[in-house]
Write a structure and sequence with these properties.
445 residues, alpha+beta, Rossmann fold, Dna Ligase, domain 1, D-amino Acid Aminotransferase, Chain A, domain 1, 3 domains, eight-stranded antiparallel sheet, five-stranded parallel sheet, 34% helix, 27% strand, globular, binds adenosine-5'-diphosphate
Amino acid sequence: MLKKVLIANRGEIALRIIRACRDSGIKCVLAYSEPDRNSLPVSVADEAVCIGPAPVQLSYLNASRIISAALVKGCDAIHPGYGFLSENPDFAEAVEASGLVFIGPKPETLRLLGDKVAARQRMKAAGVPVVSGSEGVVENFKDAAKVAKEIGYPVLLKAAAGGGGKGMRLIKEESELEMGFSLCQAEAHRSFEDTRLYLEKFIPDARHIEVQILCDAAGNVISLGERDCSAQRRHQKLLEESPAPEVTSDLRHKLARWAKAAAQAAGYVNAGTVEFIADQQGNCFFIEMNARLQVEHPVTEMVTGVDIVCEQLKIAGGDKLGIAESPNWPIGHAIECRIYAEDPDNDFQPSPGLIGDLILPTGPGIRVDSYLYQGYLVPPFYDPLIAKLIVWGRDRVEAIRRMERALFETSITGVATTVEFHRRLLSSPRFRKGNLTTTLLDDIW
Ligand code: ADP
C-alpha cells in the first residue's frame, strides 16, 4: 500500500488525483510551476513543492526536478496524470531507478505502445482486428503508393511516434501522395523527432470507440466498458459518453475481449484505454492504446461506480484487483462536456485570463471536475481545459436533459469558453439521434 504520492501534473487532473489520494488515506505532494502557485490544487494538497518556472521543459517535463522533489518529500510513488511525462518510458524508468513506484504501466510497455507501428503489429499477432494498412513503416512515397493501391484510397499517413492528433495526413488520391508524404514526414520530425510513417485505410464517417481496462500486476484484467469519443475537432475530443450509442451488447463483449487481449499482449499493468475506430457497418478496428489515465475517465466511473484513480493507486501499491466485471454495467448513461478557455467564434483560439463570475452547476446526477475559482488567473502557458461537466441519467435522453440543465446553469465570465458550443452541439438533431461520427462537429460548427 502506498503512503505518500507525488503528483506531477496540474489543473483539474491534479485535483482529481489529490481527491483520490485523500479518499484512499494516502498523503499527497503536488509538484507545481511558478505560475501555478495560486492554483486550487496547490492549496488543497497535503504539501506542495515548486519545481520550476512556467516553461514546461523547466517544470512539468523536468524529470530530475520531479524525482528529486518526490525523494526530498519522502514519497513512495509518482502519479503523472495525463499529458506531460505520463507516457514517457525514460521517465518511468528513472522513477523506478530511484526506488519510487511509477503509477502506470512498465517502461517497456510504454515503449512498445509509444511506437504505433510496433503496437499495431503486436495487436494483430494477438488476434485483435487492426485497420488494413502497411505491415510496418513505409520508407518512401513509392512504397506508400504500392500499399495505398492495394488497400484503396483514401488513406491516412500516420507518424509511428504520433499522438495528440499530430502527424496524421489524409491522402484522397494518388496525386496527393508524394507531397503529402514529405509534409507528413516534416511534421513528424518537428513534433516527435522521428520521421517514420505508416499507412492506414481512412475510414469515412467513423466512430471513435474506446475501452477502459484495469490490470493488476498478477495478470488480472477487466474491462469497464466503452466510451464514444467521436465528437472531435481536429482529432481532439470535446464530448464523450458511455455507453456508446448503437453499440449492441454483442459488440460490447467483443470489444471487451479485444481490449483485454490487447492489454495482455502488451504486458499491461494499471489503468489503460484501447482505442478503436468503427466503420458505418459497425466493424471495429484497433488504432492505438493509451497508456495512462484519460481526460474522459469520469463517464466510465459514472456508469460503473468504480473510482478509476483509487484503483490505480491500489494496483501501483501491489494490490490485486478487488473488483470484477459486472453484468449490470453500464448502469444508466453518462456524458462529459470538456469546457476549454477557448473562443469557438475565433477558431478556438485559447483565451487565458482572470475568472470573473463563476457559477458551476450542481444537483442530481451532476459532477464537475474543475480547478477554477472566482478571481483565478488562467495562465496562458498550458492546456486550456478548465472544467469537465459530467452528468449521469437513467438513459441517454435523461443524461442529455441533465447536461442541458448543467450547461444552462454554468456561467463563467472573464474568459471565452466552449459552453455555448456544447449547448449547440446538444441541440443538434444528429447528436440527439446518437448519430455520432468524427465529422459531426465540422458539420455543426
Ligand atoms: P492520436 O494518437 O494522435 O490521438 P489516433 O490514432 O488515436 O491518433 O487517432 C486520432 C483520431 O483520428 C481518431 O479518434 C479518429 O478520429 C481519427 N482516425 C485515426 N485513424 C483513423 C482511420 N484509419 N480512419 C479514419 N479516422 C481515423
